[in-house]
Write a structure and sequence with these properties.
Elements lengths: L6 E6 L2 E6 L16 H11 L2 H8 L5 H16 L1 H11 L5 E7 L7 H14 L6 H4 E8 L2 H9 L53 H12 L3 E9 L3 E4 L11 H17 L6 E4 L10 H7 L4 E7 L14 H19 L8
The structure holds zinc ion.
GO molecular function, one term: metallocarboxypeptidase activity
Family: Belongs to the peptidase M14 family.
InterPro entries: Peptidase_M14 (IPR000834)
């Protein structure tokens, strides 16, 4: 990424904050770059353009309401009684962490829309019970400058917008080919002009470095979801080979449970398959998270199967977001049995 920081929303048992991910250390005392005017301008444009415009119009994503909800959640957190009950509940077991990464590929607009919807639901005090059983980390837009470019210049842009040395006419790295897991082995390109250009080395990009840092820093990540489109399929590791990983049965049964939760609650039918079954690619975030010990790591190719492609009609945004959210709430009960009643 050349111009902007990735940003994340991190919610843990009642508190939430927007943050810029740590980037290149210029000053040893502070590894974070604050949200500056340039970034804020980009975010404002993102939330007022393209598919998100429909959110604002229909009051699904109401910024004022979102801010108020976050404040309310913070009040809950600061209540001593709440703290005690949380401690009692989890004194035997470390809290599970769920990471949701959205918007790695610029043109897949439904992905950040769903990520944003999930963040909004988590900030709603009506859903505060969900924060009792897991720490949720939402990265609603991993590739902001690519996403912006897909609104302003090229609807089907996929990569980020970094300038590639020696080829100014061919910018961009495919973020989902840049992770250090079988990097550049298969399903990516060393040609900077290619849509699947994997970068000069693994983790050459700020965005992928930020995810690496997140996964390394946070212990006990139980579930990692990478939201993409399209295909209406839940893909499990391994993606770089068609060989099955150890523990494939568990990976598959959790993915089947997710798909069933979605369809049993009135949502679409999502297929489940191994990512590398028909097409192999190295350097993906799902395989990376899995290689770092995350037991349940998936890429969700959001709807539809083929007709809409990347151009999800705005009227379908809410339905897709709701079905993923419902499936996720139920899936929490499979990860943390005490949370089954939330389904
Ligand atoms: Zn994608």
């Amino acid at each position: 990424m050349s111009n902007y920081n990735s940003w994340g929303i991190h919610m843990r048992s009642g508190h939430c904050w927007h943050s810029s991910f740590p980037v290149k250390k210029k000053n040893k005392r502070s590894s974070k770059i604050p949200m500056n005017e340039k970034n804020l301008d980009l975010l404002n444009r993102i939330f007022k353009s393209g598919s998100e415009k429909e959110y604002i119009k229909s009051d699904i994503l109401n910024e004022r309401k979102f801010r108020k909800n976050v404040q309310d959640q913070n009040k809950i957190k600061s209540s001593p009684r709440q703290k005690t009950s949380k401690l009692d509940m989890h004194k035997k077991k470390e809290e599970s962490v769920i990471i949701i990464e959205a918007g790695a590929h610029a043109r897949e607009w439904i992905s950040p829309a769903v990520g944003t919807y999930i963040a909004q639901q988590l900030a709603d005090p009506a859903n505060s019970d969900l924060l009792k059983y897991a720490t949720w980390v939402v990265v609603p837009l991993l590739n902001p400058d690519g996403y912006d470019y897909s609104h302003t210049d090229d609807r089907f842009w996929r990569k980020n917008r970094r300038l590639n040395k020696g080829r100014p006419e061919c910018p961009g790295v495919d973020l989902n080919r840049n992770f250090n897991i079988k990097w550049a082995i298969t399903g990516s390109s060393s040609n900077q002009c290619s849509e699947t250009y994997h970068g000069t080395k693994a983790f050459s990009e700020k965005e992928t470095k930020a995810i690496r840092k997140l996964i390394k820093r946070i212990k006990n990540v139980e579930l990692y979801l990478s939201l993409h489109s399209y295909g209406q399929v839940i893909l499990h590791p391994l993606g770089y080979t068609s060989d099955e990983p150890p523990g494939v049965g568990e990976l598959r049964s959790m993915a089947d449970a997710f798909a069933n939760h979605i369809s049993n609650n009135g949502g679409r039918q999502y297929a489940v398959e191994q990512a590398g079954l028909n097409y192999q690619s190295g350097g993906g975030s799902d395989d990376y998270a899995f290689s770092r010990g995350v037991p349940y790591s998936y890429t969700v190719e959001l709807p539809d199967k083929w007709k809409d492609g990347f151009e999800t009609p705005p009227e379908k945004i809410l339905g897709i977001s709701q079905e993923i959210w419902t499936g996720l709430k139920c899936l929490l009960g499979d990860l943390v049995p005490d949370a089954k009643y939330l389904c």
